User: Which sequence fits this backbone?
């Protein structure tokens, strides 16, 4: 690795504007090339980010010797083959969540990473969101005793608000074949399942889910409302739940997608609340701690959802420069992916699903 990490962005769609913020902010990183099958979009992003090379084909991007790392930001059905090709071309890879549609696909990516000796990180931004990071720091310091329960709520709002999302960005998401599962309970869910694993340090063992598919238009189904619950392994008994509320007539204040995520972590001696993430549904402090009859609010945290992308980008560059593995590594991402698949399988088959069943592989995993 030279003095500067030279990044090539593969896929210049909706999320790419946020994804590059850490690279643009880092003094030792540069976005040097972009690649997208949509030439106009690629040219616009290259000009905005100061990238001097624009490619339409992955092969040409990967043949560019002056690129150290590829950030994969394409629809999910393309992730596995593109990440494997990038690793085989000798590039480090940041692969957007969910890394792949199945555990079997992810295993092929992990094998390619091991063969190449290059860094593979799966990017999940909620883990870099400053209120979440502060909550984790407080949990690890014992601020609420032993965490024993987590409850997450995602409220979807009316689709006419928020940022402009191109129809093409939604089209592949509502195809279970291309997305890998539901746009909410699989795609967005990867964040919430990761939070469940990050905030309570125990393995998720069993998952149960109710997922209702709401018809928005002919052929367009939205997977909400949904209620997903899980049990962690071992003692003390610990459980969690994630509720998706399809409040599609409600205004959700958001600069980004019209949904917001709130979280409550209950411990043996106190409670922590994170009151916002993607949007700004409520004007409460982003983080609140209750313990011993006293409530403490944190007002000095960065709270814009975009901050999570910036911190995540900076972490990737720092990790490459320092020669360390950035989060998420393959085995952690694999467990979160299995969690997401278990939820979908539970709802489809009307039964509780053990994570070991999904992690063991097989054609459906
Ligand atoms: N972390 C988050 O909160 C978050 C939010 C949104 C999206 N994402 C993830 O980011 C990724 C991209 O999502 P998006 O919303 O930006 O999608 P999008 O559809 O808006 O953008 C995808 C881009 O990939 C391009 N593309 C398609 N096939 C290609 C190919 N073969 N070669 C090159 N380019 C190709 C498309 O033209 C498009 O510009 C997905 O993995 C998604 O789950 C993450």
Assistant:
């Amino acid at each position: 690795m030279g003095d500067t990490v030279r990044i090539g962005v593969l896929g210049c769609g909706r999320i790419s504007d946020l994804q590059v913020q850490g690279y643009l902010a880092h003094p030792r990183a540069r976005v040097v090339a972009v690649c997208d099958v949509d030439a106009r979009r690629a040219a616009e992003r290259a000009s905005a980010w100061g990238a001097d090379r624009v490619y339409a084909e992955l092969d040409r991007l990967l043949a560019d010797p002056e690129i150290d790392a590829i950030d994969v930001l394409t629809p999910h059905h393309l992730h596995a083959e593109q990440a494997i090709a990038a690793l085989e071309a000798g590039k480090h890879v940041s692969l957007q969540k969910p890394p792949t549609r199945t555990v079997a696909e992810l295993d092929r990516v992990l094998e390619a990473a091991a063969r190449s000796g290059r860094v593979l990180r799966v990017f999940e931004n909620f883990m870099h969101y400053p209120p979440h990071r502060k909550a984790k720091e407080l949990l690890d310091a014992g601020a609420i005793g032993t965490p024993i329960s987590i409850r997450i709520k995602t409220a979807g709002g009316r689709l006419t608000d928020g940022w402009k999302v191109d129809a093409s960005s939604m089209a592949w998401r509502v195809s279970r074949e291309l997305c890998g599962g539901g746009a909410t309970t699989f795609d967005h869910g990867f964040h919430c399942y990761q939070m469940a694993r990050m905030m309570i340090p125990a393995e998720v063992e069993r998952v149960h889910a109710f997922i209702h598919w709401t018809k928005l238009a002919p052929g367009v189904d939205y997977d909400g409302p949904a209620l997903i619950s899980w049990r962690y392994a071992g003692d003390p008994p610990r459980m969690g739940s994630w509720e998706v509320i399809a409040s599609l007539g409600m205004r959700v204040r958001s600069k980004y997608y019209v949904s917001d995520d709130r979280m409550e972590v209950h411990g043996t001696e106190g409670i922590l609340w994170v009151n916002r993430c993607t949007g700004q549904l409520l004007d409460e402090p982003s983080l609140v701690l209750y313990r011993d009859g006293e409530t403490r609010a944190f007002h000095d945290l960065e709270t814009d959802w975009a901050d999570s992308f910036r911190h995540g980008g900076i972490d990737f560059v720092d990790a490459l420069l320092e020669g360390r593995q950035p989060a998420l590594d393959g085995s952690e991402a694999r467990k979160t992916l299995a969690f997401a698949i278990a939820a979908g399988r539970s709802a489809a088959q009307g039964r509780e699903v053990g994570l070991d069943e999904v992690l063991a592989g097989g054609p459906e995993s």
Observations:
- The chain has a mean pLDDT of 96.
- The chain has 13 helices and 15 strands.
- Residues 5-125+315-325 form a domain with the Rossmann fold fold (CATH 3.40.50.720).
- Residues 10-16, 35-38, 41, 58, 73-76, 78, 96-97, 125, 168-169, 187 surround nicotinamide-adenine-dinucleotide (CB under 6 Å).
